[in-house]
Amino acid sequence: MQKNTLFLPEIGFGVYQIVNQEECIRSVKAALDSGYRMIDTAAAYGNEVAVGKAIRQSGIDRNEINVTSKIWVSDYGYEKTQKAIDKSLRKLKMETIDLLLLHQPIGDYLGSWRALEEAVVGGKVKGIGVSNFTISQLQEVIDRGNILPAVNQVECHPYHAQKELKAFIDQQGIRLEAWYPIGHGNKKLLNEPLFLELGKKYGKSVVQVILRWHYQSKNIAIPKSTNPEHIKANLAIFDFELTNDEMQKIGTLDKNQPFFKTNPVMNFFMKRMKIPE
C-alpha cells in the first residue's frame, strides 16, 4: 500500500462553526498572520469560499499553506465524490487541495475513497484521509484501498485520549488529528487542578498546556477561535516542555469520555445534507 508523504504541521487552525463569511476571512487571516500554515475546513462547514479568499488576501505563497477540506456524506459514492472534489476546488479557487478527508463513515465511503485515490493520481489532491472512523472502518479502507490514509481526524483531548485507536493508527503509520482538542472549552477540563498547576509552573494558560500535551503525544491539533489573541496564543506552545512524569499524570485523566455521544458534525449539519453551491 502506498504511504502518504504529505508534510503536516503539528498544529493547524480549524474553522468549524465559523459560518459568517467575513468573520471566517478575518479569523483565517489572523491565524496566517500568527504563523499557522494549516487551515482545516469542510464542504459541510459552508466556508470553503471564505477560506480561499482569506488565503489569497493574506499574500502568503499558496505553496506554504496546507489546506484541508472534507467530503460530506451527501456526496458519497464514486461519481458523486468526483464531482464534489471539483466543487470544493471551485469554491476554494485552488488547483490542488493538500489534504482531503471523508467526513463520516456513512454510506458508500469505499466508493468515495476510490475517487479520492484517483484525485491523488490526477494531481487534484496531494493527500487523503478520513474523519471519525473506527478501527474496523479504518481497517476496511486499508484492506480495500491502495493509498494509506494520512490522518484520522477524531475528537481527542485529555478526557478522551483515544488510546486504543491511537495505538492502532500509530502501528499503521496514520496520524491522529484532534478536533475539539481542548474539549470545546469544557469548564471542568479547563479547571482541572493538574492543568492549573502546570500552567502556573510554566507561565502558560491551561489551553496552552493541553495543546502542548497534544504536541508531545504526536497528535495534530486543530483548535478553533475567532479571537485574534487566542488564535495567537494557541500557537505559542513550542517554548516549554512537559516532563515525562507530567505527561503520565495527564494520561491518568483519560475518562474515555467524548463530549458528544453522537458526532457534533452530524448533529450540526444533519439538516444541511445538501451543501449549497
Share of residues in helices:
40-55%
CATH top level is Alpha Beta
Task: State the CATH topology.
Answer: TIM Barrel
H/E element string?
A: EHEHEHEHEHEHEHHHEHHH
User: Span between N and C termini?
Assistant: 35 Å
Strand-residue fraction?
5-15%
CATH architecture title: Alpha-Beta Barrel
Low-pLDDT stretches are none
Number of helices: 12
Count the strands? 8
What would you call the structural class? alpha/beta
What about the largest sheet?
A: 8 strands, parallel
Number of domains: 1
Q: How would you describe this structure to a colleague?
A:
This protein is of the alpha/beta class and 277 residues long. It has a single domain, classed as TIM Barrel, CATH 3.20.20.100. It is built from 12 helices and 8 strands. It has helices at 21-34, 48-58, 78-92, 109-121, 135-144, 163-172, 187-190, 193-202, 206-216, 228-233, 244-251, 264-269, and strands spanning 13-14, 38-40, 66-71, 97-102, 125-131, 151-155, 175-179, 220-221. Strands 1-2-3-4-5-6-7-8 form an 8-stranded parallel β-sheet. Helix 3 packs across helix 4 and helix 8 (193-202) packs across helix 9. The longest helix has 15 residues, at 78-92. The two termini are 35 Å apart. The mean pLDDT is 93.
Features:
TIM Barrel, eight-stranded parallel beta sheet, globular, alpha/beta, 277 residues, single chain
Topology:
Layout lengths: L12 E2 L6 H14 L3 E3 L7 H11 L7 E6 L6 H15 L4 E6 L6 H13 L3 E7 L3 H10 L6 E5 L7 H10 L2 E5 L7 H4 L2 H10 L3 H11 L3 E2 L6 H6 L10 H8 L12 H6 L8
Parallel strand pairs: 1-2, 2-3, 3-4, 4-5, 5-6, 6-7, 7-8
